[in-house]
Amino acid sequence: MVYKIQLSTEDNVGEMAQLALQERLYENEGWCMRECLQDVISGHLKSISPVVAIITEGNSPVGACLYASGSYATVQTYVKPSHRRKGYGTALITKVVGSIPEGGRVSVGVGIPESSQFFRRLIGDGVIPFGARWDGR
What whole-number distance in Å separates Cα of residue 100 and Cα of residue 115? Predict the structure, then answer.
């Protein structure tokens, strides 16, 4: 698996959110991540310093992660079904958690059953299925 992860900057966060939307890096039309990406583009989330991380295989985006930077990060992640269980989600979460300042906390919202299993594997038993939150490192 050869991949590249790019984290947005304050200057290009809107462009990266737009790319994530164009590439349909969200579960479905009603998915919270889609709405949040739209809010990043419109500037509604500027106060929380959003970061968009996109993972690519070759030149093709295959996943994205959206989170608020700073000492507390709420993370939303999506990997295309064709690329799941191949390490892309793990690489995204590892990169994101590694960018949180020392002593920071991460909140993970679990939206689909597969996500619960994924996060439980990465961070332990702190993940409760659908709609729960995990706080810690």
Answer: 21
